[in-house]
Amino acid sequence: MSTFVQSAEKRHLEHLAIIMDGNGRWAKQRGLPRVAGHQQGVEAVTRIVDECVRHGIRYLSLFAFSSENWGRPRQEIDALMGLLLQYLSSQRQKMLTERIRLRVIGDLSRLSEPVQSALVDVVRETSQGQTFTLILALSYGGRDEIMRAAKQVARHALDGHLDIDQLDNKSFSAFLDTGDLPEPDLLIRTSGEVRISNFLLWQAAYAEFYFTDVLWPDFDAVELQKALAEYSQRKRRFGLTDDQTEPQIKESND
Ligand code: IPE
Ligand code: IPE
Ligand code: MG
Question: Under CATH, which architecture does the 2-143+183-253 domain have?
Fold first, then answer.
């Protein structure tokens, strides 16, 4: 009798994460204000959400505003928040119709009240969406997220609700903003920068990375296809050996 040992190497791409970078440079190349780049960046978001749904990807995490981006000029921050509000109102109906669920990760308490309430509304309204989950990382930093989780863990322990000796990777993960979400399989960064810039530090431990020089506003279906093709060639070992992760036919006598 033979037993098929399933391969971990060609894991289906369930969760795609993207560091959408290069909006400012896209605008600068055209002699336009940075905000024009951000506007085009929103167009790219709409396009890529549709493409991900078409490809059967179930989760898309987009790095939209980092905890460090709070240091940018007030005018740019305000423009970004305005675009976010516009995006939410223009996409709300489509999300409901297409059963797309919105989630947000990050320190939302730093966002203005109108932005927080718009987010809370759309997250609540779309919570039953089962086709696709769009995760917006806003006011998000991986270190900040881990720190907030650690504080919560400490509070639970002090209250006597948690035994520190029982804490492991899985139970700690549940305290992160991404608690119930799968880890990203592929992480794309546009604009030629080769760094993680504090995105999903914990969750990307075994993500595949894909870097492209294409600026975010130019990222389209063809560029996504290139990244997916590259991902399908990657060999994911998760710390194991080739023999352990390659598909094999095991002979046994029982
Ligand atoms: C990414 O584009 C969007 C945000 C960080 C909000 P940038 O605004 O960082 O564009 P560049 O890197 O200056 O070109
Ligand atoms: C990362 O881009 C954050 C987002 C895409 C929202 P940045 O432009 O802020 O990153 P650095 O400063 O180049 O590392
Ligand atoms: Mg940038």
Answer: 3-Layer(aba) Sandwich (3.40)
